[in-house]
Specification:
CATH architecture of the largest domain: 3-Layer(aba) Sandwich
Shape: elongated
Number of domains: 3
Structural class: alpha/beta
Helix content: 25-40%
Radius of gyration: 26 Å
Number of strands: 21
Mean pLDDT: 89
Low-confidence stretches: none
CATH class of the largest domain: Alpha Beta
Length: 460
C-alpha cells in the first residue's frame, strides 16, 4: 500500500511540491481535495526528497492540506482493437462519449526500439499527392516534419494524407488544437470514411497543458504495439511547436535555467525521444511519423524547427499553400523511387530543374527584361507545373502524375530541350495524337462541369 501524503509544501501554477521518498520520475499520483474531487498528477522533477508534480486538471481548488497518493507506476494507456474509430483526450480518456477502454494497459513513453530490431526503409507510402509521391516520396518508417507558418493549410494537408495514405491505420495526435481544428479533423475523417481505421488523441487549447505533453507519447505507444502486430501505422501530429511551448512553460514554472529563446536545454532530447519511435520492424509492421511544425515568423532558425532538422530525415516545407519543391527534402526517397517506374527519377530531377529555370525567368520578366521564345515556354511550363502538380487539390496516382509530367513537358518543349535520356523520351514522350486526345478529354470534363453548373442554376 503506497503512503498517502497530506502536506503540500508549495503550489506554483499547476505544479505542486511535496516531500516524499521512494518516488520515481514520471510516476503518477492521485490528488484528492478536501471536497473529495480527484485528479491525476505526474512527477516532473526530483530534488532529493522534494517531489514536484504537474496536476493534469490544474491547481484550482487545491490547498496545502490535500492528499497525494503515489500510484507506483508511470502513465499507461489502453491498447485494444476496440480503440479503432475512437477519439480520446490527452490523458487517454474517451472524449467521444463512448465507453472507457481499460483492458491491456501498456506503459507510455518507453525507450525507442533497439536498432538491431530495425530494418532499412525500402517501401513507399503512396498519398496521391504529386509533390510528395513524385518529388519527395514518403517512406515507411520515415520521420518527417511539415515546416509551415500559422495560416498555411498544414492541417488540411495532414487530413488529406490521413484519407489517402496507403497504410493499415492512422493515429492522429492533436496538441493544443483549436476546437475548430479538432472538429475539422473529426468531420473530415468521418466524411472520408477513414475514421474506422483511425485513432485520435486530441488535446485542445482549453485543456491542461500537461496533457499536451502526453499526446505524442500516447500516439506512439499505441502505434508501436499495433506495429508489433504487423500493421503499418502512420502517426500524424499537429503541431510539435505547441508541444515544445508546453515544455517551455513547465520549465519556466520550475525555474529552470532557460536555453535559446527560453526553451529548456533538453529540447533536442525531448523531440528526439518522440521522433525516434519511427521504426520498420523485421517480419512485422512499422511506425511512420509525420508532424506539423509551425515556424514563428517563418524563421527556420527558431529552436523548434532548428532542432527538428537535426533529428528527422528531411522535411516538407509548406509555403504559399503548396509544398515548396526547393525547401522540401525526403532523404530516403532514393530508397524507393527507383522501384516504382523507370522514368520516376528522371521526371523528379528534370521537372525541378526546369521549374528552377522558370523561377529565374519570372524574375527577368519582373525586372523588365526582353523575353525570348524559350523564356515564354518556360513561363508557360511554370504555370502548368504550379496548377497541375503543385496545387494541393490535385489528387492522382503516382503513375498518373508521371504521365501528366510528360504531357506538361510535351506541351511546352521539344524533347531535345529537356535533357531527358533518349530511351525514356522514345518510350514515354506523348505523341501528338495522344496530346490532342488528352486535351479533348480535359475539355469534355470542363464542359460537363459547366453544363452541370448551368443545370443546377436553372433548377434553383
Amino acid at each position: 500500500m503506497r503512503q498517502v501524503y497530506n502536506k503540500i509544501r508549495q503550489i506554483t501554477g499547476n505544479v505542486v511540491t511535496v516531500q516524499a521518498e521512494g518516488v520515481s520520475y514520471e510516476e503518477l499520483a492521485e490528488v484528492t481535495t478536501r471536497r473529495g474531487a480527484k485528479s491525476l498528477a505526474q512527477v516532473i522533477k526530483l530534488d532529493g526528497d522534494m517531489v514536484s508534480l504537474q496536476v493534469f486538471s490544474g491547481s484550482r481548488g487545491l490547498s496545502v492540506n490535500d492528499e497525494i497518493r503515489f500510484l507506483g507506476r508511470p502513465m499507461q494507456v489502453a491498447f485494444s482493437d476496440n480503440m479503432m474509430g475512437r477519439i480520446f483526450d490527452g490523458a487517454g480518456n474517451p472524449r467521444d462519449n463512448g465507453p472507457a477502454i481499460t483492458e491491456n494497459l501498456i506503459p507510455v513513453a518507453g525507450p525507442s526500439v533497439n536498432p538491431a530490431k530495425r530494418i532499412i526503409p525500402s517501401r513507399m507510402i503512396r498519398t496521391n499527392i504529386p509533390m510528395i509521391d513524385v518529388f519527395n516520396s514518403l517512406v515507411v518508417s520515415q520521420k518527417l516534419p511539415i515546416f509551415s507558418i500559422s495560416g498555411e493549410p498544414y492541417n488540411e494537408l495532414l487530413a488529406r494524407i490521413a484519407l489517402q495514405a496507403e497504410v493499415d491505420m492512422i493515429i492522429l495526435g492533436g496538441i493544443k488544437l483549436k476546437y475548430d481544428d479538432y472538429m475539422f479533423f473529426r468531420n473530415k475523417l468521418e466524411e472520408g470514411g477513414a475514421l474506422y481505421r483511425s485513432i485520435m488523441f486530441v488535446n485542445t487549447a482549453a485543456e491542461p497543458i500537461v496533457e499536451s505533453l502526453m499526446v505524442p507519447d500516447l500516439c506512439l505507444a499505441v502505434a508501436e504495439n499495433f506495429a508489433l502486430q504487423g500493421k503499418d501505422v502512420l502517426v500524424l501530429l499537429s503541431d510539435m511547436t505547441n508541444f515544445a511551448d508546453a515544455l517551455k512553460e513547465i520549465a519556466i514554472t520550475m525555474e529552470q535555467v532557460p536555453s535559446n529563446r527560453g526553451y529548456p536545454g533538453d529540447l533536442y532530447s525531448q523531440l528526439a525521444a518522440r521522433y525516434e519511435k519511427a521504426v520498420d520492424f523485421e517480419n512485422s509492421g512499422s511506425v511512420t511519423v509525420l508532424a506539423a511544425t509551425t515556424m514563428p515568423g517563418d524563421d527556420v532558425t527558431h529552436p523548434v524547427p532548428d532542432n527538428t532538422g537535426y533529428i528527422t530525415e528531411g522535411q516538407f516545407y509548406l509555403h504559399d499553400g503548396a509544398i515548396d519543391p526547393f525547401g522540401s527534402l525526403s532523404r530516403l526517397k532514393q530508397q524507393v523511387n527507383g522501384k516504382t517506374r523507370e522514368d520516376h527519377r528522371a521526371i523528379m530531377d528534370g521537372m525541378i530543374q526546369l521549374y528552377s529555370q522558370y523561377r529565374e525567368t519570372e524574375e527577368k520578366r519582373a525586372m523588365g527584361f526582353r523575353m525570348t521564345d524559350r523564356d515564354n515556354r518556360l513561363l508557360k511550363y511554370g504555370e502548368m507545373f504550379v496548377s497541375q502538380m503543385m496545387d494541393l487539390s490535385v489528387n492522382i496516382t503516382l503513375e498518373e502524375a508521371l504521365d501528366r509530367g510528360w504531357k506538361i513537358l510535351a506541351d511546352c518543349f521539344q524533347p531535345k530541350e529537356t535533357g531527358f535520356r533518349s530511351e525514356l523520351v522514345s518510350k514515354f514522350w506523348p505523341q501528338k495524337d495522344d496530346v490532342k486526345k488528352t486535351d479533348a478529354n480535359d475539355k469534355a470534363d470542363d464542359d460537363t462541369d459547366v453544363n452541370a453548373t448551368q443545370e443546377s442554376e436553372k433548377t434553383e
